[in-house]
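User: structure tokens for this one?
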Amino acid sequence: MTVILAIETSAHVGAVALLPDAPQSDNAIVEIVRDDAKLSAWVLPAVERVLARWGGHVGQIAAIAFGAGPGSFTGVRTACSTAQSLAYAWQKPLLAVDSLDALAQQAVNDCAQVTVALDARMGEVYVASFMRQFEASGAPMQRMAATTVQHPSSVTLASNALLLGSGAPLVAAAQPDALASVIDRERNRTIENQWAVGVARVATVMLAQGANVDPLAAEPIYVRNNVAQTEVERLAHRRATQAVAA
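Assistant:
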């Protein structure tokens, strides 16, 4: 039995999940919080509550996984540092999982193709597309290209794909006429609520492949190195946005 403890705090959904019989997700124990500005104070108590609900002991856990981003600068660092600490203290393998991959995997039974768009702030989104390679239900999603950061109006939308993530409304607003992808807010919310389960599912495969990292060397995935703007840059961005709107 492969028991995975997963932490995901890269975006607007903070989540801890314990997958006691990965890769199946039916029996996952999950705790989530949405749009909480104090994830760093929430995450460790959430881990304790999930472990208490599980009823097992730390020795049964095979690995610790975390959503490495890209996402909120503070959020990805919260997940990374918490998972690092637990893996080091408990002497467990550590898996750094791409957060977009994890979210896409939770949609495998919903459609054949998924575009994940996460709000990257500064008028941009982190985006990547995925496709289910086999017709069988539950077949894993395969990444079609590396994650990029771009303006919502530049995102390429495939016909009949599910547009998923916090950046989906931004893309829809920027491309009201070209939007061919499906946005189902309730379904998206359900998938996002299982985000940490996706982290655990991807981590299970990575663990079998020996893709764990040294806890002391683990790092988030940033994609965009410039995570803050100067006053001059913010002013220029506002002017550019106003010019486009005019």
